[in-house]
Every structure is written in C-alpha cells, then in structure tokens.
Amino acid sequence: MNVRTLCLGILSFSDMTGYDIRKMAFEGSFSHFCEASYGSIYPALSQLTNEELVTYRDEVSEGKPARKIYSITEKGRAVLLHILHEQPGPDRFKSEFLFYSLFYDKMPPSQFRNLLNKKISDISEKLEGLKGALDCCDHEPSHFAIGYGVAINTAVLDYLKTQVEKFDGEAETPPCPPKDTFKETSHERS
Amino acid sequence: MNVRTLCLGILSFSDMTGYDIRKMAFEGSFSHFCEASYGSIYPALSQLTNEELVTYRDEVSEGKPARKIYSITEKGRAVLLHILHEQPGPDRFKSEFLFYSLFYDKMPPSQFRNLLNKKISDISEKLEGLKGALDCCDHEPSHFAIGYGVAINTAVLDYLKTQVEKFDGEAETPPCPPKDTFKETSHERS
DNA sequence: TACGTCATGTAAGTCGTTACATGATTGG
DNA sequence: CCAATCATGTAACGACTTACATGACGTA
Predict the structure, then answer these.
(1) Residue B89 lies in a domain
(2) Is the CB atom of residue B36 positioned under 7 angstroms from any atom of strand C?
(3) Whether residues A109 and A169 fall in one domain
(4) By CB distance 3.0 to 4.6 Å, which of A97, A159, B3, B86 could disulfide with B40?
C-alpha cells in the first residue's frame, strides 16, 4: 500500500498533521506493518488535497509553529472504502538479519552470538511496546492488528531464545552487555 | 540488503545463472526474507562482473538457451565477508492485509472473513513449503533461517485460526470456495 | 547558548518493479 | 500448435529515502 492510502487510512481515524502521521507510521501502533517518512508524507498530503480527498485547516496558535491539520473528506472516505475492496497485496518480510544468519558458519562465533543477542533485545523491546499498545486500545480492529504483531514477535523471541542456547555452549560469551543499556526508563516522568 | 549483496551471497553457495538466482530469491528458500526480480538481478550481475566480484562462463549446450553461469571470485568472497561485518539493518515487515484489517468494522462481514480465509490458506501453503525445505536441508545456517520462517508462519496461522472463529459466529459463511479455484490446470477450449 | 522537539517542505538520488523485446525448447 | 519454461536483457517509470533548508519555542 502506498503512502497516499496510508495517509487516507490514518486520517480516517482522526484529524492530524503530517508530523503526527509520520509519528504514527514510524513509532506508533502502525509502525509494525508499515513505514513512511516526511519526504513521502508531505507530497502525498498535497496530492490528496489537490484531489479533494483531504482538506486542511491552518492552526496558528501562540508559542507554537503554524501547523496544517488535515481531515479526510467524504470523497476521501469513499475512495478509501473503494481501495479496501480490492485484494490486498501480499505481505512482505525483509530481513537482513536472516540473510546474515546464512553465513554464521563463516563468522567468528562471537559475532553471530552478538547478532542474536542484539536481535533478542530489539524484539523484546518492540514486543513490550506492542503489548502496551494492546492493553490501552479499545478499538477492536487495532486490537486485531496489534495482536498479530504480538503473536509474531512472541514466536520469534521464543525461537531465538531456544537457538541462542545452542550457540552459547560453543565458546565463552565475552562481549554482550547491551542488555539493559536501553532499558533506562527508571525515571519516566519526574 | 541490496540486490548486489543478495547475488553475492547466493553465489557464495554455488554457481548459478541470473535466472536461477531470481528463482531462489522469489520462490526458493530465500524467498521468505527477501525478493528480487530480473530487472534488478541482471544489472546487479553486470555491475558485480565489472567490479570483478563475480565472473561468468558461457554455456552453450545443444537444445538449451545459451546461459551465463556466474561464480563468485575470491575478491567477491572477501567483500561479502566485509559486508557481513557491518551491523545488519532492521527487519521490515509490510502488511497490506493488516492495514486492511484496521477497517474491518467498515466492511461487510463476509469481506473480511474472505480476507482471513485467503490469508489462512496462503500462510498454510507457505508454511508447508518451508517445512519441506526444513526437512531436506542439511546446511545448518539455512536450517536456522528456515526455522525462523516456520516459527513466524506457525504463530501467524495459529493467531488467525483463533481469530477467524470470532468472525464465523457473526453471520453465515457463503463465498469461500477459492481453495482449488487457482489450481485450475484443465483448460477447456475448442 | 545550544540542543531537542515541533513543524513544513523540496531536491536529488537510490533502488527496484513492470513491462517490453527476443528467442529456443519441451510437453501435452 | 500452443503454452509453459528456460534464458537474457533494457527502458521507462514509480516510490520512497536522505539530506537539505527553514524557523520558532522550550529548557537545561
């Protein structure tokens, strides 16, 4: 799905700025199955505006940058519904990590173990995020989509944890301290 | 990872034509974590040849199209090893299906149930393929990578199967015969 | 004062897909 | 004979990313 459709979909939930859309598609609860950067979002929004699928109102408040708050139009909703009627394209999963793993027998053992550990902590972190989103989400369809992400990441984490044991036996485990390096959240809001 | 690196990696396992590489990256045991089409593979191979990371020999045998069989060079292996030393980029998962699912409450119930059923049969098929590859594979790293795919797809399948029940209760299930509709090998013509 | 966040946007460039062009062979 | 498979390649196009340009405000 292209960025135009993505914007249309996100705006169908609530009015938003381009900045906000990028956040949702990059860090928010959409981010586990899509991505978009400013360079694609802003042009997409202009185009959608030209086609009258969205409109915007300028908001100029004191002490804040001027912002354009986009809303989907009726026409936009109709187009979105129409798009949803087509068959969705196939899911795509791209993993540089898995590509690397094909050559683990050609790397020093510690190198691959580090990759595994890094992966495990990345997935753990992502999984925590998804689980958090799952709890504080009452929109059923989002629940479904986030649950899907939770299912995948849980499975991957389990798989990696069973696999890492196989490699831990092979030699000593020297350089893998990044475990709690990112976990620094002890002072959430002081 | 770009197509150049992908070709280099695949050729590190065995000599192959561009056609074969595309098959591996599209249908073979690489296809669950990468993709590449002719339009990117052939230019990549030319480029790699210019850089002397691969070479090819022409094979002109009776009754077959002429083909270029590519081999990785020593220099190519060195470059590959060097690339593997860098941190792999993050995995990316793109799902149009999940995007669609966010709007299931805005579709007719049968539409989403069809999507679910389609998804379930697609994943089942893919899972069978992966499991088959897992059994007849003695290369350990490939085993790891395929096992990863099996883990993901098993989890997704389980998730979808539990979810589909929730939607099955809501209305009767009329149009989902596409099981063997694609399998149509018989062509009745005059 | 300097950095981080909010906020919008453009231009250049990368990367890859789709569709096309070509042609031989095999099997039903 | 027709379709599928094997086989190579190019050109046009599309989609997105990166980096840049701009600027105001809050806070440490």
Answers:
(1) no
(2) yes
(3) yes
(4) B3
Cβ–Cβ below 8 Å for A145 and B80: no
Protein CA at B56 to nucleotide C1' at D4, angstroms = 27
Q: Are A37 and A55 in contact (CB under 8 A)?
A: no
Q: Which pair of tokens denotes residue A64?
A: 């804040």
Nucleotide nearest to B5 (CA to C1'): C15
Containing B133, the helix (H) or strand (E) segment is: helix B109-135
Which of B148, B153, B166 would best serve as a mutation to test chain A binding (most A beta carbons within 10 A)? B148
Q: Do B111 and B67 belong to one domain?
A: no
Domain that holds residue B67: 3-84
- Does residue B64 lie in a domain region? yes
B170 falls within a domain: yes
pLDDT by residue, tens only, chain B of 190 residues: 899 999 999 999 999 999 999 999 998 889 999 999 999 999 999 999 999 999 999 998 776 778 999 999 999 999 999 999 999 999 999 999 999 999 999 999 999 999 999 999 999 999 999 999 999 899 999 999 999 999 999 999 999 999 999 887 665 544 444 433 333 333 333 2
H helices then E strands: how many in chain B?
A: 7, 3
Q: What is the CATH number of the domain that holds B27?
A: 1.10.10.10
The size of the A-B interface in CB pairs under 8 A is 154
Which residues in B lie closer than 8 A to residue A35 (C-beta atoms)? 92, 94
Would you call B159 an interface residue with chain A, using a CB distance cutoff of 8 Å?
A: yes
Bridge partners (DSSP) listed for residue B9: none
Query: Nearest-CA neighbor of B85 among A132, A27, A104, A140?
Result: A104
Which residues fall within 8 angstroms of residue B57, CB to CB, at 6 or more apart? B68, B69, B71
A77 in the same domain as A40: yes
Q: Smallest Cα–Cα separation from A148: which of B157, B14, B42? A: B157
Q: Does residue B49 share a domain with residue B10?
A: yes
The domain tally of chain A equals 2
- Last residue of one domain, picked from the residues B62, B84, B106: B84
A70, A101: one domain: no
Q: Are residues A169 and A118 in the same domain?
A: yes
